[in-house]
Design goal:
With 237 residues, the protein is α/β, with parallel strands linked by helices. The protein has helices at 16-27, 39-49, 67-81, 104-132, 152-172, 206-217; strands spanning 7-10, 31-36, 57-61, 86-89, 135-139, 178-184, 227-230. One of its GO terms (biological process) is monocarboxylic acid metabolic process.
C-alpha cells in the first residue's frame, strides 16, 4: 500500500454533517478531503480541520452533479495521499413546496444532487475502493422511508437513495467494499437555509453523525450494519 494512513473523501464536507464527519475521522487519524462547489468554502473548512491535526485535511472544489468533477476529486485524493479508503456521500439539497408550486428547476436540482450525485460519486470511486477494500457511506434521511406534505422532490430523492444504496451494497460486497446507508432525522445544520441556534439543542448534532461513521469504520470486517436510522432521543414538544 502506498500510504499507511487511511484517507476519506467527503462530499459536501465544508459544513454541517459533512464537516462533523470530517472532524471525527481526523480525530481517528484519518486524512480527509472535503468537497464543496466553492473552493473558498472547501479551503476554509480544511483550514479549520487542520487545527485538529495539521496536514490532515484538504479542500477540493467539486460538483457532484458532474461525473468528471467527481473523478477529478478522487484523482486529487490519490495523487495527494496515494489511496482512497472511505467515501462519505453527504452532499445534499432540500426544496420543499406543494407539487403545484414546486418548480422543474427545484425538482431537477434535488434529484441531480441527492440521487444522481451519489451515483456519480460511486462511479468515480469504485475502482479506488476496490483497491483498498474500502467503505462507501451514504448520508440519506428518514425522509427516505417517511413521506410528508411538500416533500415530493425530497422524498423522491431520498427514497431513491435508500434503494440505490442498498442495491449497491449487494453489487460490491464481493469486491470487499462495504456500503452503509445512514438515515438521520432532524440534525442541527444550515440545511435548507436554517441557522442553528440554542433552540436546536434537542436535535441530532453533526458530531453525532461523525461518531456513527467513526464507529462503522471500526466494525469488524465480517460485520456490516447496512442501514441505520437515527432520531433525536427526545423530539421537540
Amino acid at each position: 500500500m502506498a500510504e499507511s494512513i487511511k484517507t476519506a473523501l467527503i462530499t459536501g464536507g465544508s459544513k454541517g454533517i459533512g464537516y462533523g464527519v470530517a472532524a471525527a475521522l481526523i480525530q481517528d487519524g484519518i486524512r480527509v478531503a472535503v468537497t464543496s462547489r466553492s473552493q473558498k468554502s472547501a479551503d476554509e473548512a480544511a483550514a479549520s480541520l487542520n487545527k485538529i491535526k495539521e496536514g490532515f485535511a484538504i479542500g477540493i472544489e467539486s460538483d457532484v452533479r458532474n461525473l468528471e468533477s467527481q473523478e477529478a476529486a478522487v484523482a486529487a485524493v490519490i495523487e495527494k495521499w496515494g489511496q482512497l479508503n472511505y467515501v462519505i456521500a453527504n452532499a445534499g439539497v432540500g426544496h420543499f413546496a406543494p407539487i403545484g408550486e414546486l418548480t422543474t428547476e427545484q425538482w431537477n436540482e434535488t434529484i441531480d444532487i441527492n440521487l444522481t450525485g451519489v451515483f456519480f460519486s460511486a462511479k468515480a470511486s469504485l475502482e479506488a475502493l476496490k483497491a483498498t477494500e474500502g467503505y462507501f457511506i451514504n448520508i440519506a434521511s428518514l425522509a427516505g422511508t417517511n413521506f410528508f406534505a411538500n416533500g415530493t422532490a425530497y422524498n423522491a430523492s431520498k427514497f431513491g437513495l435508500v434503494g440505490f444504496s442498498q442495491a449497491m451494497m449487494m453489487d460490491v460486497r464481493n469486491h470487499g467494499i462495504k456500503v452503509t446507508t445512514i438515515m438521520p432525522g432532524s440534525v442541527a445544520t444550515e440545511f435548507s437555509n436554517h441557522q442553528p441556534s440554542e433552540k436546536d439543542a434537542w436535535k441530532i448534532q453533526p458530531e453525532d453523525i461523525g461518531q456513527i461513521v467513526s464507529d462503522l469504520i471500526k466494525m469488524p470486517a465480517r460485520t456490516l450494519p447496512s442501514k441505520i436510522e437515527v432520531r433525536p432521543t427526545t423530539p421537540a414538544k
